[in-house]
Amino acid sequence: MGTTFIFTVVILSVLGLLLAVILFLVAKKFNVEEDPLIDVVEATMPGANCGGCGFAGCRAFAEACVKSRSLEGKFCPVGGNAVMQKVAAVMGVQVEEKVPMVAVVRCNGTCRNRVRVNEYDGSVSCRIMSSLYAGDTGCRFGCLGGGDCEKACQFGAIRINPETLLPEVDEEKCTACGACVRACPKGIIELRNKGPKSRRVYVSCMSQDKGAVARKACSAACIGCRKCEKTCPFGAITVENNLAYIDFNKCKLCRKCVAECPTGAIHAVNFPPKPAAAPAEEPKTDKQ
Amino acid sequence: MRRTFSMGGVHPHDCKISADSAIETFPLPQRMYISMSQHLGAPAKPLVQKGDKVRAGQLIGASAGFISANIHSSVSGTVAAVEPYADLAGNPVMHVIIDVEGDEWEESIDRTPDIVREITLSPAEIIKRIADCGVVGLGGASFPTHVKLSPPPGKKAECLIINGAECEPYLTSDYRLMVEHTEEVLLGARIMMRALGVTKGYIGIEDNKPEAIKKMRELTASSYSEIRVVPLRKKYPQGGEKQLIDAVTGRRVPSMGLPIDAGVVVQNVGTSFAVYEAVQKNKPLFDGVMTVTGECLDSQHNFLLRVGTPFEKILETVGGVPQKTAKIISGGPMMGKAVANLSAASVKSTSSLLLLTEKQTRRREEGECIRCGKCVQACPMGLEPYLLNKLARASRMEELEHSKVYDCIECGCCMFTCPANIPLLDYIRTAKADVMRIMRSRPKK
Amino acid sequence: MRKLIVSPAPHVHGDESTRKIMKDVLIALAPSMLVAVYFYGFSAIKLLLVGVIACMGAEFLIQKYLMRTKVTVTDLSAAVTGVLLALNLPPTAPWWVMVIGAVVAIGVAKMTFGGLGHNIFNPALVGRVFLLISFPVIMTDWTVPESWFRPGVDAVTGATPLALVKEGLAQGLTVDQIISANPDLTYGQMLFARAGGSAGEASALAIILGFIYLLARRVIRPHIPVTIILTVAVMTGIFWLIDPSQYTDPLFNILTGGVLLGSVFMATDYVTSPMTVKGMVIYGIGIGVLTVLIRYFGSYPEGVSFAILIMNSIVPLLNKYVKPARFGKEVNHA
Asked: pTM for this structure?
């Protein structure tokens, strides 16, 4: 009994010691020298690993920041300015404030506005649908309703509304990481300036078809009539390929174009219900 | 036991209900819509403008690049417009739109029905003539024929295989050509063998076409002894190039390789006929045989149809679209394209319009994968469709490449056979395109 | 004209469906069920009915109220599990044992993994092994119950041939002595029909009929059953040649116990067997070897259930590492 006990203790101790030595040697041999600053920067990141910054994940972003010793051209859309300030602080560099952005769906081809001309019977995926054909409506530019954006969004910020079959963005959750923008094969999602009090004016259409064709396919289409372009006092609207586009850097949110648009393709969101002169407020920079 | 390809494959119902309908000449419509993109590769450059008078056989679109092909007018008349026009998928493609007036052909074309047997052109001249006449592969991919007949340096063709398998259900256009124009098809093969400088030729025909095998055998026995008729046991996708080569010669085209890597060039029966007409009759490719079929139609047809005829016109001629029709397919039911836009027009390689009913074509409700392995068993390329589908849905590109998704020929056997009705090919197809793009973008070592 | 359907190719589908496959399996099991009813009469009918109802009921209730997903009992996979489980129990087993087995088979072995297609182990076998471990007395009581079809025969205490041999050897007898002491241990009886043992073991012929049907309908491929049977034959053959007094001959081993039922109906279960031919062969050999090892060196007289369950667990590995033969050689496309 006594010897068994002693043997057990001795064998286990020797084994433990041996393994410890091996582990030590291996750790020494395969040790990778890394700037400890990378870990510090990574710790300040949101950790969503969404790739919205253009790097493979938060770690890759932190690595790139530390290696280049500058934050120029680098921005974490999830963490926003607050995180970038923190990163700048740990790295000891300066960073410019960025205006907050939000994903905007530029199609208003709801089931009512846009008649289905055929029935899609394949896998529910915009990628597959768009590689197969122009779509199940007369408009080949509009939303296919397959929900690739919904699947791409890690924050649950974009959802297909089952009634309209169009995606809707939850502004509170949207981090403007751009995953939906990349996922949409029709390119109808745009990252736009969030605007003061989240107020925005944009053209909710991507149709480049001629007016008559676009109008026939969808009652809410931009028909390229240029009325908005002429109305805009700030020169923020340009019409190209039968499609109007509002430059959000020039737009002063006066909403004259909204009233002018014959098809209602220009949307103004988050304004108070009664039309009033747009208040000139400071852009709300920080929502965190 | 007759030979067939060695792995995978499925047995869809034959449905060759239009097999006994002789080729009829389709009446000329009033307006023709000739696409500038009827081949793999860059679209042709339009050579005519609105108001120009054209004749059938006149060059109206010039080949734009190495893999591209000439386009000729299929009718005589006045050019009404040169503008984008929606193809069968609803996407705009440059078209030359012609108002038909009379039926005047270019004078250089031999319009007599006589068969010209003597081949006078040299191999180089043959290839040039085929390129000038805009002949493309009519088996589906529309690869320019003259490119296929000019193997890249260092590679040598040893034999030519004419693809008379027509393994897709319903299609009978190749069958009618083999039965009604047996000698022209064989002459086309002889011309291509001369162009390639090969002495061995085969024509592979599935054994559900005994009439075609008999006629071909009679002629090859008497005067075309260099071409061997190979009857094949019916199995889909026998008409896939790699499968046909395997079935006829037992050679296997390497992974990622082309038929020429196995020393073989494969051409379709329709292409062979077009080559004969181009070389011996100086007639550019502007018409072809097209099957119009479906159980819901009262009559089944094989039309000799000019390129650019709108589908609407064709369907009107056969008595309109029956109420029961749920889907119209250009091509066969396994690999054809569903038509979304009926005002689209036929192109060189349109081999059929197939009308299917709801019951025949509606996808069934998708169930859970029961891991039966039937897709693995059915895959003619030895891939694992169940796995590829799973990886594709998760966008795992590296594993997809490792699992050889690039070898997929998109034949649809896996999806056809899946007892759980899983749309395997939907995701595999897009994943394959993605993986191929990634592989191409990689710097070559 | 109505709206046209648009979808990617292929535009037609074969006649296969999960339900049809399961129906074919049930048809293939019909001969074995008939033999069971013939020998064991009402007991067999009761077990089969309770098995099917309990399995389908368990699946229905779990899917509807626990998982709150689509109910898929109509695909008949639960019915197959029920029949297989019933054929694996002693005919005298009480109905509540069957119900417990069904709940374990469907609830634990199938639904906890996510339902049909996701389970790692064959549900019927998990059910059976659970019962075997939990109720060893009931599960090895091989009393042959009365049957209307064999009037005049009183209830007898049967025992499975394998158990007879194992017990005999333990008592120091030789194989020859055991067989001559039990006049019903003839090949003819074992092949056609022999009362004793579970319902599924009664007739080898009935199972072979089912096997032929499954092959003809292309429901299964022959690789798994054939490799299992060949492996069992080779392994037992080697032992038999070494010492015929201690080991039974190959034919005896194939015809007795669950080798046939297991290899044809349980090892070929799609979900828990490999996808590729090479994988199937490895899997079959593994089952054969394990079966013989358990029979000869384990404490149980029978080893097929355990062998299949053990090999089930390496199926995911086989699917990952054993790839089908690809078409065309890999070339260096650099």
From this structure: 0.87
